[in-house]
TrEMBL record:
Key word Kinase present: yes
A family per Pfam: HATPase_c
Annotated TM spans: 139-161
Keywords noted in UniProt: Kinase, Membrane, Phosphoprotein, Transferase, Transmembrane, Transmembrane helix
Class of the enzyme per the UniProt entry, highest EC level: transferase
GO CC terms in record: plasma membrane
Domain Histidine kinase: 224-421
PROSITE patterns: HIS_KIN (PS50109)
Name under which the protein is recorded: histidine kinase
Catalytic activity as recorded in UniProt: ATP + protein L-histidine = ADP + protein N-phospho-L-histidine
InterPro entries in alphabetical order: HATPase_C_sf, HATPase_dom, His_kinase_dom, HisK_dim/P_dom, HisK_dim/P_sf, TCS_sensor_his_kinase
Amino acid sequence: MSKRTKRYHSLSRRIVLQFCLFTLVLSLVYSAISIVMMYALEDSFIERGIEQEAQQLASEYARTGQWPQPSRGNYQLHFSRNTFPEEIRQLALDHPKGVEFSGKNNRHYHILEIEGHKNTYLLAEVSNELYVRPIREGIITFLAIYAALVTLIACVIAWYIGRKTARPLTQLAALVDGVEPEQIPMQFADKFPNNEVGILADTLEASLKRMVSALEREKCFTRDVSHELRTPLAVIKNAVELLSSSPSVANSDGLKRIEESAEQMEKTVHTLLMLAREAHSAEKKEDTQLMALVERSVLNHSTLLAGKHVDVVIDDSCNTRLPIQAGMLSVLLDNLISNAFQYTHSGEVVVSFAQGTLIVKDTGQGIEEAISTRITEPAVKGSESTGFGFGMSIVKRLCEHQGWTMQVTSHSGTTVRVTLT
């Protein structure tokens, strides 16, 4: 029953992060495409110039029957790859389909086989025509600055959008967070925009209205139950007082049991009604003797052990005083001890207290596997139970109400640990 704090992630921060990440990736992709397109455009200009030169040479050869010299000094005509410059010759022979090779000292070559003339090549050294490569670092720097600037602008825009988007949600959360049942806000949905947040506000307002209605019905039910239970208890107590004045039954053990049970029932009703009203756990606490409450609870439920070979052990550690509401602790002990007595047929039931933790351990059959994960839910009970299955549910609610923690284990019996401090 220990409650872990749930971690929440800021919606506006997530919007900013995702928007900026998307913009950064988009900028990098755009920069990469830009560089590739510049290289492609540069190559297309070079190849177009080589093709025009090749067409002129082929036309002159067709007219005169002899190959003329290329019109440009950086163009060479070759009739075999074996005559290529030494720095690219081997590469050209190893890659017969290659059309672009890099040489030494930043030289760069393009090769074109003249159409219709096999093994006739126009070789162009185009290092002086490369405009992108010399300024490549500058281009990359510019694109990096551009990407950073665009990402920064996107982050600012995303921060504004995220803040504007999350603000109504934050206001809605602040409106309903920690509100007392008697102070539940009404008619607040109209204050929010007509979007998804407005839909959420409408839904939440409708849910709160239903909750207020349910709380009002429960308050009325609690008031009626309080009257219906306290009236017969008052009659029983008055009857006990009248019987106590009779000498024949004044010292009767049965009469004392009735009187003690009536008092205990009155305290239990008070405690349960306090839970139903969601009274605050910081109500007046008193210095309570734990041993006395344990002994009284054991005596009150001793009839459950009739005919059983069960030893009840109250450890000396229970001889301590606690700053606690006695009524709440009494209800807790009654439920835990009665359960232990009911489901233990032989062996022992041990009640102890150590380091702020109340421990009730028995050697019974343990919790049935079918209900082991739902043992603290209302109306869940074992096959041997003769009750209604609300005992452990009341214990769970009591622990939540008082800020206690409960742990139930079932191995060679059942052990319940409730940390009270």
